[in-house]
Specification:
alpha/beta; Beta-Lactamase; five-stranded antiparallel beta sheet; 29 helices; 34 strands; transferase; coiled coil
């Protein structure tokens, strides 16, 4: 094509340029390049308005764009008799020039505009001549006329564009059909959304929408064209094909066909305008269907059902109401329903209904309704508003439910409860307090397990750091500049060890060394420490009851507990006040034990610390014993002191209770079990310089870093060190016949053999072998009931070289008798009462569920855990279950419904209901079912399971 243009126009003196549909210049002849002062390379490929820019939205810019747009839309030639358009010269200067332009469309094979050929002539001189003084020539007159026409065309084009934009953006669909054959001339966006994206312009109605054949629209349009009278339809159904290959789809439209006429009244087309109301029609149909379904369902219900308008006017009642009241159909509408209400209830019932209608809120009341025989029965009357998408009330749906029998029972029950109400209320308060105590205890147990589990690895890390620091210090000169930094690091390790010890105490994992002591003597020995910590502004009073019983506890932990409580009291009193430490005998009876699930009735030695400080509210008391909880300012406490006290007391079999009121001080009472044994005589602590030895020590430690530092400390003390990383390798060394004086082993040991088993086996081969255990976290191998087994020597991690040296000399001087009976024939463990059973526990409280699972696992069960009924049913499908333990109050269903569903699948499944109630209705008919009343202990849980399974302990 470009070759042809070159042949035709290359030598033509008139300027020509060719642009594509994007207005990109694709060709220009020599005259055009000369007139515009451009080269072909500088403009070919550029948008014409970019190659020859005019100020955006200026008159020249608008005139050029409108003319080119008209050619693309209509496919017809468009003329610009006069257009002012600036040209930028090669030197950058801008010259205002005037042109006369013709835009000719060039079509493709399908009749679509593919290119626009612009022929433009520079008429700048003629235009300027027309504006000079004197009589204008013919050319000047033409130019002036062209300028006027151009201005009119520009204004007309802007108006057409505005109308076209408004037409296209209108929410209703609009179409202009021209001529008797009804050819599409204008179609807006809404119409295309209705009929599908089609190329309609220039096509007749029958060509553009052939699917309208047989639907009456062609005939209706011809009637409008011939008669000249408009036609309107609402909700008319039309079947359209939105996609060329797709099926016809029904649409509903409101429309008007308006005839268009020439000035002389001759018809020349039809204007179509309307709205797509398909969604509205479908919604109305669905509403009608829904209303019919509702009424069908309401007629089958045993209750009275009625509906009312948004204004509260009853407009429908079901047959049950007519049958009950005996009135004729239609006599309960509007306000007539009040006639069947008891006269004493009518006024209040009507007032409540009016208030509900006004506030559009739930309607609920109770009144008596007259039956067909003239008697009245109580009904509970409810109604809810149904709202539309905007929130407005569309309708009221109401029901009347007969509650006469319930009212009778309530009256009788009210008389019966007149004397019982106070006792029930008191019992409920007791149970609520008991449940709160149980939840708190279970929470503290769970947190304690977590805290204790952290300590092992933490203490191993501290031990590695401690040993390495001490070995580094021993190799330094006293005046070395590095020594102060290493000393500071050792102090930090000490603080870390204290932190780990407190975590172990709270987690009840601290290996205690209890002695039978008299707290009065211990308090007398610790008195100066307490007074020193409190300061002179705090007055301390000590009260010791006569005939004080002994108790078996770890003395060091008692001292720490007293000191912690005293320091907390001092801070609560802002450093001045009165502190009372009281020791006496106490008896916690069965009533107290029932109110505190963690208390065993019996005799105790009571230690009370009372201050005159600010006191604590209940919500603070609940959290006092939690690790890291503190009310002190940041940096003034770790929050572990009270948790350490709590863990030590619980591990010792005791009980702790806080009494406090805001503004009236606090009293913390510790109850430690009484011991009937004689008081132990205290052994003086070791003193003197640290010494080593020349014995041979077998060091067994699985942590390589800890083993390396421990070996270094031992070698530095003069000992010969043999090393093993587990029990099997240690026994290889023992069996080799090497001389070994002491076995120094970590308690927690990987592999098939525990450290205790290894020690016993080694002592069988070497009866005089001394054994020293070490650990940052003790398990049941050497600790039972929170106390070290008799004869066992333990050095807790992290330890210093001095502590290690003194403990080694102590153990080597008097070896402990570790072996109590041969390893080859250990006593068989007692059989777990529920060994081998698979039990499903369904309890939504995670802490209670964890506690139940732990107890059952210790009893030998395999436990499946579920937090709701749905998960429990899913677990039931995973394999056979011997029994289920179900909480009655589950989040997604009742425990009784869950048990019934399970029994449908497994009719003989044993079921235990865990509940705060003493009786569960309907349980007698179930068979193989038991009630376990909360709170319950471990023994009660095991016994109930055995009972429902038909076993004996």
């Amino acid at each position: 094509m470009l070759i042809a243009l070159d042949k035709i126009f290359s030598d033509d003196p008139s300027p020509y340029v060719l642009v594509d549909r994007d207005l990109r210049i694709t060709w220009a002849n020599a005259a055009y390049l000369a007139t515009t002062g451009r080269s072909a390379e500088s403009i070919i490929g550029r948008i014409i308005t970019d190659a020859f820019p005019a100020p955006p939205d200026s008159v020249p810019d608008q005139m050029l764009r409108m003319s080119l747009s008209r050619v693309l839309e209509t496919g017809r030639i468009d003329h610009l008799p006069l257009i002012p358009y600036p040209i930028t010269a090669p030197d950058g200067s801008v010259t205002e020039r005037y042109w006369s332009a013709t835009h000719t469309p060039i079509m493709d094979g399908e009749g679509r505009v593919e290119y626009i050929l612009q022929n433009t002539n520079d008429v700048t001189e003629i235009y300027r001549e027309s504006n000079t003084l004197g009589a204008p020539g013919d050319n000047a007159k033409v130019i002036r006329r062209a300028e006027a026409v151009a201005k009119e065309n520009l204004a007309l084009g802007a108006a057409v564009n505005f109308v076209r934009s408004a037409f296209d953006q209108a929410p209703s669909f609009m179409v202009v059909l021209k001529g008797r054959d009804l050819t599409f001339q204008i179609v807006n966006e809404s119409y295309l959304q209705l009929v599908g994206r089609r190329d309609l312009i220039g096509k007749t109605l029958r060509e553009g929408l052939p699917e309208l054949e047989g639907q009456g629209f062609y005939e209706l349009l011809e009637q409008v064209y011939n008669s000249g009278e408009a036609v309107t339809r609402r909700g008319a159904e039309v079947r359209l094909r939105p996609t060329p290959e797709g099926p016809e789809e029904p649409r509903f439209v409101d429309f008007i066909f308006s005839p268009m006429k020439d000035p002389d009244g001759t018809p020349n087309g039809i204007f179509v305008e309307g709205h797509d109301v398909t969604r509205q029609k479908l919604a109305e149909a669905e509403l009608i269907a829904t209303r019919e379904r509702f009424r069908t369902m309401a007629q089958s219900m045993p209750n009275h059902v009625w509906t009312a308008t948004p204004e509260g006017v009853i407009d429908w009642v079901n047959d049950r109401i007519y049958a009950y009241t005996g009135v004729a159909e239609g006599q309960l509408y509007d306000g007539q329903w009040i006639d069947v209400v008891h006269p004493d209830d009518a006024e209040e019932g009507g007032a409540v209904w009016a208030a509900a209608v006004e506030s559009t809120s739930l309607y609920q009341t109770e009144f008596r309704i007259r039956s067909a025989d003239g008697s009245y029965r109580w009904h509970i009357v409810r109604a809810v508003p149904l709202r539309d998408a905007s929130g407005a009330v569309e309708r009221w749906i109401g029901t009347n439910t007969d509650i006469e029998d319930r009212k009778t029972a309530e009256s009788a029950l009210a008389q019966l409860n007149a004397t019982l109400e106070e006792r029930v209320e008191q019992r409920n308060r007791e149970l609520e307090a008991l449940h709160a105590t149980l939840r708190q205890s279970q929470k503290m147990e769970a947190i304690g397990n977590l805290a204790g589990g952290i300590a092992h690895d933490f203490n191993n890390l501290l031990q590695t750091i401690t040993g390495s620091l001490q070995l580094a210090l021993r190799g330094l000169e006293p005046d070395s500049p590095v020594r102060p930094r290493l000393d500071q690091a050792m102090k930090a390790v000490g603080r870390g060890a204290t932190l780990a010890s407190q975590l172990l105490s709270f987690g009840r994992r601290q290996p205690l060394a209890p002695k039978v002591i008299n707290l009065s003597r211990l308090l007398r020995d610790a008195d100066h420490i307490v007074r020193s910590a409190l300061g002179e502004a705090v007055e301390v009073e000590t009260i010791v009851a006569g005939g004080l019983w002994n108790t078996c506890v770890d003395p060091a932990n008692v001292e720490s507990a007293i000191l912690n409580l005293a320091i907390n009291a001092r801070d609560a009193m802002n450093g001045q006040g009165r502190l009372t430490i009281e020791i006496g005998n106490a008896y916690l009876d069965d009533a107290y034990a029932r109110a505190h699930v963690d208390v065993t009735p019996g005799q105790y030695v009571m230690l009370a610390v009372t201050d005159t400080g600010c006191g604590m509210p209940p919500e603070i008391i609940e959290k006092v014993f939690e690790p890291f909880f503190t009310t002190k300012a940041e940096g003034r406490g770790t929050g572990l002191g009270m948790s350490m006290v709590y863990g030590f007391v619980k591990q010792s079999g005791g009980h702790v209770k806080i009494y406090s009121e805001v503004g009236n001080g606090t009293s913390i009472k510790i109850y430690l079990p009484r011991s009937l044994e004689a008081e132990d005589t205290a052994r003086p602590a070791q003193s003197g310089p640290m010494t080593g030895g020349n014995e041979t020590i077998l060091l067994v430690e699985d942590d390589e870093d800890v083993r390396a530092t421990a070996a270094g400390l031992l070698a530095d003390l003069g000992y010969t060190v043999l090393q093993a990383r587990d029990a099997d390798r240690a026994m290889t060394i023992v069996e080799s016949g090497a001389r070994i004086d002491l076995l120094f082993t970590d308690v927690v040991m990987p592999g098939r053999m525990t450290s205790r088993q290894m020690a016993e086996k080694a002592r069988l081969m070497m009866p005089k072998l001394a054994v020293l255990f070490t650990s940052g976290y003790t398990q049941n191998s050497i600790v039972h009931g929170g106390r070290l087994d008799a004869g066992v020597q333990l050095l807790s991690k992290p330890y210093t070289q001095e502590a290690l040296a003194r403990k080694l000399r102590e153990v080597l001087a008097k070896p402990a008798a570790v072996v109590e009976q041969p390893v080859a024939s250990p006593p068989p463990p007692p059989a777990a009462p529920l060994a081998g059973l698979r039990v499903l526990v369904c309890e939504d409280d995670v802490i209670i569920r964890m506690n139940l699972a732990e107890v059952l696992q210790e009893a030998g069960c395999s436990v499946l855990e579920a937090g709701n009924g749905k998960k429990a049913l899913a677990l039931l499908e995973t394999g056979p279950v011997d029994a289920v333990l179900i909480d009655l109050g589950l989040p997604d269903m009742s425990g009784m419904d869950l048990a019934a569903t399970m029994r449908d699948r497994l009719p003989d499944l044993p079921v235990v209901f865990a509940t705060g109630q003493t009786h569960v209705a309907g349980i007698e008919a179930m068979g193989r079912a038991q009630v376990l009343t909360k709170p319950f202990g471990d023994d009660a849980l095991i016994e109930t399971l055995l009972a429902v399974l038909g076993r004996t302990a």
